[in-house]
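# step 3/5: fold
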Amino acid sequence: MENEIRMMEWGRLICDKRLGMEEYHDERHHTRSDFQRDYDRLIFSSPFRRLQNKTQVFPLPGSVFVHNRLTHSLEVSSVGRSLANEIAIRLSGKYTDRDILRKLADIRDIVAAACLCHDMGNPPFGHGGEKTISAFFSEGAGRKFRDMLTERQWADLINFEGNANSFRLLTHEFKGRRRGGMAMTYSTLASIVKYPYSSLHSGSKGKFGFFESEEEIYRRVAAQLGIPELSPGIFARHPLVYIMEAADDICYQIMDLEDAHKLKIVSLGEVSGLLLDFFPAGRRPRIERSMGRLDDPNEKIGYLRSIVIGEMVESCAEVFFAAEESVLRGDCRQGLIAGMDARLRDAYAACAEVAANRIYCAPDVVNIELAGNHIITSLMEALAEAVTNPDRNYSRLLLNAVPRQYDTRAESLYGRLQSVLDHISGMTDVYALDLYRKLNGHSLPAV
C-alpha cells in the first residue's frame, strides 16, 4: 500500500502551471505550449546569454574554438530532447489514456528547457568555481561567519552547489523581478533538481538541490506534481531529472574528448579507439570505412561523436522504459548511464578515466582553475566585507557598483551573503576578471 501511495503519476508530473502566476493558469491548449514558452524564455534571458562567456572545462577560445557553458547547454538540450523523444515513443505504446498520451508528448519540450538551464547557476571559471566559493567559507576568510549562521545556512555555504543555485536563479524574486522569478512551469523547475534534498543531507559529495531560502518553493512544486517526500527533507526525483542528467553526462564526457583532440591533448588514434569501443566488433569495420572517406581529423572525430551519442541515447531510452515503475515509485537508485549494457558502460568509463587523468589535469585547465580561484576568492573577500560593514567608506563605494537586483541590504546575514553569491555566480569570466583588476587598481576607466 505504501508504494501505491508514493507512486508518481504522469498526469500530475506534467503540469504547465507557472510559479508566481498560478492565478492565471488555464487548461486550454494553445498553439505554442507553456513548455515551449519556457524554452524560448530561457533562450532570450540574460543569465542564459551570459553562459557564452563562462568556461566549461578549457579556457575560452583563442584560435581553437572549444565549448563554453552556452554551447554545452545547447548541446545537452539537443541530446535531451532526442532522448525524451525516444522515451515518449516507447511510453506511448504502454498507455492508452488520451490525456496521458498528450502529456507524455510534452516531455520533449520540458527536458529541452530543463537542459538549457541546468548550468545557469554555475559560477565563472569552470567546475572549480563552486569549490572555490565553498572553500571561502570552510577554510578561508568566510570561516568567521560560522557562529553567526544556523547549521542549515552554514551547510548551504560550505557546500555551495551550482544545481541548487540554478533553482534559486529561476525562482527567487530578485529586486525588481516579478513574483516567481522567471515564472517557469512547475514541471521544468522540478526537472532540473538532481539532488532533491537540503544541504543537511548533502553527504561527502556536497550535493544538494535547494538552499534554505528556496525550500518552501521546492516543497510547493513537489506537492503540486505529486513528488513524494521519502523521508524528512528527502524527496523522490522527478522522473525527467534522469533524462536531463543522462543528456548532460553524455555531452560533457564525449564533447570534452572532442575538445581535447582539437587542442592536441589527446591524439586522433586514442580518441578514435575510445569512441570505437562503444560499438561491437562486427560494426567497427563499416564505421572505420566511413571515417576513411573523411580527410579532416576533426570531421572524423565529429562523425564518431555523433554515432556514439546516438548509441547512448537509444540505450538510455531502453533503460528508462525498463525502470519506469521504479522511477515512478521514487526508489530508482542509479542514473540511466549506469543502467546501460556492459559494453557501453565500460567504454564510457574508459572515456571518464582519460578525462580525469589527461584532460582535467591538463596545464591550461589547471591554470584557469588557479586563476579563477584567486579571482573569486578576492571578490568574495571584498564583497562579504562590504555587505557585513556597509557603512564603511570603501563598502559604500563597492556596493554602489553591485547591480540593484541583488539585496545587499537584506535583513539577515545569510541573505546578505546570498546576495554576494548571486552577484559572483552570475558573473562571466571576463566580468569577474575585469572587476578584480579594478578593485586591485590594475585597471582604470579611460579618461
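# step 4/5: annotate
Residues 1-5 have pLDDT under 50 and may be disordered.
# step 5/5: archive (pending)
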